[in-house]
Amino acid sequence: MAVLRQEVDPGEAGLDAKVLRRLDRHLAQYVDAGRLPGFLVAVSRGGRVAHLTAYGHRDLAAGLPVETDTLWRIYSMTKPVTSVAALLLVEEGRLGLDDPVARYLPAFADARVYEGGSGDAVRTRPADGPILVRHLMTHTAGLTFAFYHSHPVDALYRAAGLESSVPSGADLAEAIEVYAGLPLQFEPGTQWNYSVASNVLGRVVEVVSGQPLDTFFAERIFRPLGMPDAGFEVDAEQSGRLAELYGEREDGGGLKPIAGLPLHGRPRFLSGSGGMVAGAYDVHRFMELLRRRGELDGVRLLDARTVDLMTTNHLPGGADLRAFGSRPAHDEPGNEGVGFGLGVSVVIDPDRTKAPAGLGTYGWTGVATTAFWVDPGRDLTVQFMTQLRPRTSHTVFTDLKRFVHEAVLPD
Length: 411
Prior knowledge:
The chain is of the alpha+beta class. It is 28% helix and 18% strand. It is globular and about 60 Å long.
């Protein structure tokens, strides 16, 4: 077990300690008001942790506090890890960004695109071109999520039993077959729609590498980087450190425990989209790999140019996410000025973002209100951990970004 620790005083890292104390007090109000169970926030500069606070509870009923070794379901923060896994194979020449996905997953060979209608009367046509690997990484493949309610194809996903992104009892390979049998919302590469694409990418990694996704992640990413608690399951020792997952009561009367990822024992479905558990130390190590452009403590996982490619906007026409409509993509505080790279969001126009952000800042969030980002211009990394699946949009990320921006002292 490795524990994240504060390494320098904020002032040594060019951060204002008074502002960071105000940040802590502000976040504590969420907990004290019953809007969050507890949280961990860490701010690092130049790779050194300069601010680290744990507050509240990881288990309200048991009275167990959030600690620096608490484990968290990071859900969609799994997606950047899946992208790194795929990029490892790209660098080895075993996979290409412009390879048709059907080369590895033949079920996608005859993809069809939605043309009109709904339900049993849906009309489709053959896709003009194939889904490419890069389309999976950028969410431009035409796939979707069942929990959306804005397109007839979303309803087809629900009808296929994909409310939780996976058919009941299916493994990753079986789920992919179901995805491939449904029409695409649009021609691959032409629009952006946050989707099950990272699950498909995870299956591509399995097929190309010949290894289950959890084994590939462990051998090629977690062990080389020293991420001891990261994975798809928790053992007996880790179980006591796992935070309870909460939802909001329908009557507005506080929080209630809800079912989370099946982490006790190896899950049958290894989700490259949202299946991981990790501690703050693990997330810090992963952020450091990206901040240092592919190298950490003498271990080079990726070429620097590959990380640069990953963290560059790849959306059609260089557009931001808002150009493709608003979807519930965990993208607080909004999509304006934010593009998307190979598995991470990327700030392309700081003047248009709704919360302060440096040009080129990249990262992602999770549905349980977790987040990480890397700001290359300020040499800054930030992570926020809690375990709440809110019923409506939460403002905590907006507040966090505002305080961190204010805390950075002028050069």
